[in-house]
Amino acid sequence: MGTMRLDRFLKEQGIAARSELKKIIKKGRVKVDGKICTDPGFHVDPETSRVTLDDAPVRYSRYVYLMMNKPGGVLTATTDRSARTVLDLLPEKYRRMQVFPVGRLDKDTEGLLLVTNNGDLAHNLLSPKKRVPKLYEAHLDRYPGESAIDAFRKGVVINDEFTALPAELRFISMEPVIAHVEVYEGKFHQVKRMFRAVGAEVTYLKRLGMGQLKLDETLEPGGYRELTEEEKTLIGAE
Ligand code: URA
Q1: How many domains does the chain have?
Q2: Which of 123, 139, 214, 227 holds its CA 20 to 30 A away from the CA of 235?
């Protein structure tokens, strides 16, 4: 990776908007390799330059990866004119880093949502060709019968134009009826439509995992945190 302007370096770390950054730099609050630098256009090497703001180190990382426990009632979108979106739950810092949700959960669906600014990684996690399983817990209004397991394994026929890819289904409780299902694609209302096709309605849906990444159940609904190094490795992030 080559050098970059100091103001861009700080902007990509979500420190402040570019216009605000110029002021911060001009005031002498930023040092590069121990020396005050008042030139926003000064070139730094993200890998080797030591940059500080008010003497606190600013470490560079190209991408950010957040795990969110999505609450019900919030849209999986970056903006919406009236409804609250998952990005509204994050501090300005991350929005400045231009993060977006990886895939969509319905408004009423809860659970694991990855939020990042790494488009390639998002694509890899979502493409059915990459076969990354998404694990859901579904509460159902009735037991659709043992035959549903086979139907899911073969690929549920939703309608003329859509047969779901084979999915793994297991029932983990009968009263109430709760199932775990692993799917490899994310079409609109995928899981709800698959259950409807075998005669049961989903009354509650929560995503528990994406590939090897599991929801941190200690996160409150609406809570989020950055992925650990180990978790980043699990999803193939740098
Ligand atoms: N399938 C659904 O039906 N809804 C979701 O939110 C996710 C998967």
Answers
A1: 3
A2: 139
